[in-house]
Specification:
alpha+beta; Pnp Oxidase, Chain A; seven-stranded antiparallel sheet; 4 helices; globular
Length: 157
Amino acid sequence: MGVLSDSVQDVVRRVKLGFAATVNPDGTPNLSPKGTTTVFDADHLVFADIESPGTVRNLRGNPAIEVNVVDPFARKGYRFKGRAEVVTSGNRFEQAMAMFRSAGLRSPVRTVVIIRVERVLPLLSPGYAAGHITEAEMRERWIRYYTSLDASSPSDG
């Protein structure tokens, strides 16, 4: 069994959006959303480079990466710490591209980033700390909130 348990893999596959933190050449942080984040295998995550020149540049210079994947309704997720490999061709590139195409990705992809996950840490909203709210209640609260935002949006008509 790899570092990514079945339940962790399920969250990543369901949420799909990861926030990747890398280090810029000047030592400052770079945080970038990656809407193609998924499980490559039981020890690796992967995302496609669609428009990620800063992230890819940073990883070529320093492969350290952290990716956060959080269910926005349950307010639960994971932090993945590891080392990234920028892949532009070969079997692993083709394997990742087959995964992305089967998921419906049609954008041009220059490279994929495959992350060897070294540590998985849970992320949990402080809202759970008092033990007075269930996941179902947390989920309902945030679904209601986001629905209210959509309902108050100006219409085109």
